[in-house]
Write a structure and sequence with these properties.
It is built from four helices and five strands, in the order αααββββαβ. With 183 residues, it is of the alpha+beta class. The longest helix has 13 residues.
Length: 183
């Protein structure tokens, strides 16, 4: 993971009005692949976080110093070390992330042919327990590289990562997140 000085330097050189809005292709091929290859540049703009150690509303402000995305933005990106097992535990102290629907293949078209470059799961955050819960407005898009990319021996270590984009889908003023900023 990049140190705080490197991250702060990267943030300072961002031009006025800069917004981090990568495409799915850029997320998978540029950021997530580079993270797996151990290229530190990827960690300069997207922090590595144990997403399941925090409630979703805490994430935008808790990690704002290590991200080019600011708390008042509407989408936040994080690398998360993939937990082993087919049925990964995605619980926090106050709730859990639940996958909705099927896994979506992310494809690119080049020269008339399509190629799968990764996959995406969409998850919703539920407050409470598995047996007694309430659906919230928090959504996660969880991006994965294809398994064959991870097994090609190109990866820098045995760790596997996902790249997660988190957003609150209700139309809430950014001021609501200010309650989580340090005083």
């Amino acid at each position: 993971m990049a140190d705080m000085n490197t991250i702060q330097a990267a943030i300072r050189i961002m031009p006025v009005g800069y917004r981090f809005k990568p495409t799915e292709e850029e997320l998978l091929q540029h950021y997530l692949m580079r993270k797996h290859l151990g290229i530190a540049e990827a960690s300069c703009v997207i922090p590595e976080v144990d997403l399941y150690g925090w409630e979703p509303e805490e994430l935008p402000t808790k990690f704002s110093e290590s991200s080019v995305v600011q708390p008042e933005d509407l989408q936040w990106w994080f690398f998360c070390e993939k937990r082993p097992g087919l049925m990964r535990q995605r619980s926090t102290n106050g709730g859990f992330w639940k996958k909705t629907g099927r896994t979506i293949e992310v494809k690119i078209s080049r020269d008339g042919s399509e190629r799968v470059i990764g996959s995406k799961n969409i998850l919703m955050f539920f407050r409470g327990t598995f047996s007694n819960n309430t659906k919230t407005e928090w959504v996660m898009h969880e991006f994965h590289l294809p398994e064959n990319a991870l097994q090609d021996g190109l990866m820098s270590d045995s760790k596997s990562y996902t790249l997660c984009m988190i957003m609150c889908i209700k139309s809430t003023p950014a001021n609501e997140f200010r309650q989580y900023l340090p005083q």
